[in-house]
Amino acid sequence: MSIFEVATGIRPVYRVNDREENLRFYRDVLGLKVLLEEGAMVELGGTDGVKRLLLEESPADWGFRKVEGRKRHVWTVLIAEPVEIAGRLAHEEVSAQATRVVEGASGLVAEFVSPEGDVFVLASQLKDLSNLTDNTAVAVKVDTDETAALKGLSDVEVAEVRVAGKTPKWESRFVKFDRVSGEVDLTARDTWDLEAIEFLVPEDTDLSSYGEEFDDYYLDAPEKLLTVSDRTGLELWFEK
Predict the structure, then answer these.
(1) What is 171-202 written as a DSSP string?
(2) Alpha carbons 154 and 169: distance in angstroms, whole number
(3) Interacting residues of 93 by C-beta distance below 8 A, sequence separation 6+
(4) Helix, strand, or coil here: 108?
(5) For 184, which of 68, 71, 86, 99 is 20 to 30 Å away at the CA?
(6) Which residues contact 111 (CB under 8 A, 6 or more apart)?
(7) What pLDDT is stored for residue 234 in this prediction?
(8) Which residue from 24, 159, 135 is spatially nearest to 78, judged by alpha carbons?
């Protein structure tokens, strides 16, 4: 069995330029909560305190730059309660930043774009998201009495990350690869894009036995963290 089949969840890591500008998006628009700021890294999650994704601040004066051409990151899907998504959209400043809002057979779906051009989809279920190819937005009825007190997403979960390019030797139920139009340099470094994906594995996983799946890997001394670089340019972290 591959280590990707063992994984129980993921935490994507995104490089960003201006920390405060990006935090205003993740916190005030998406409704995520800042759980920890340590050095260049910021941990974000729901109000339940569970870490779901990370930002790594890499300012322009450190030599980082915008992606030239197509970004590696296609989208990230965050699953949340429908009433909480509607609660976000009840705020005019949030709904004004939604690039698409759809309510139908696939539930409530709202799409947003971060300051670095990363696409995030808030969805009530991971079903058919093909309707995001339709630019037609629909009005969403919001019970303001029910949602006015909502300050953020509670039990949010990263359900899927889509990456541009051909499928490598691996793919998982959490990470999908898309053939996209437009040139994309999957090996580009020092850019503001999807930097890494952390895969969560059970505590009893023998990480040392999985290192041989990769040409080059690093396993820390406690054998709690296995890191590799995929040929797409992504860093993959496997953590107990």
Answers:
(1) --SSEEEE--SS-B-TT--SBSSEEEEEEE--
(2) 35
(3) 28, 29
(4) strand
(5) 99
(6) 75, 98, 99, 100, 101, 119, 120, 121, 122, 132
(7) 85
(8) 159
Higher pLDDT residue, 138 or 167?
A: 167
92-125 pLDDT tens trace: 889 899 998 887 666 788 999 999 999 999 998 8
211 phi/psi in degrees, rounded to 5: -60, -30
Handedness of CA 126, 34, 66, 88 (dihedral sign): positive
pLDDT band at 132 (very low <50, low <70, confident <90, very high): low
**Backbone phi, then psi, for 34, in 5-degree steps?**
-75, 115
Question: Which has the closest alpha carbon to 101: 92, 93, 112, 91?
Answer: 112
pLDDT value of position 143:
53
Q: Is the pLDDT of residue 51 over 80?
A: yes
Separation CA 80–CA 82 (nearest Å): 6
Domains and CATH numbers, the chain: 3-239 (3.10.180.10)
Is 57 in a helix, a strand, or coil? strand
Per-residue pLDDT at 117? 93
The candidate with the shortest Cα–Cα distance to 109, out of 71, 151, 80, is: 80
Residue 192 pLDDT grade (very low, low, confident, very high; cuts 50, 70, 90): very high
108: which 2 tokens? 């409530």
Average pLDDT of span 19-30: 96
Amino acid at 210: Y
**62's tokens:** 């450190």
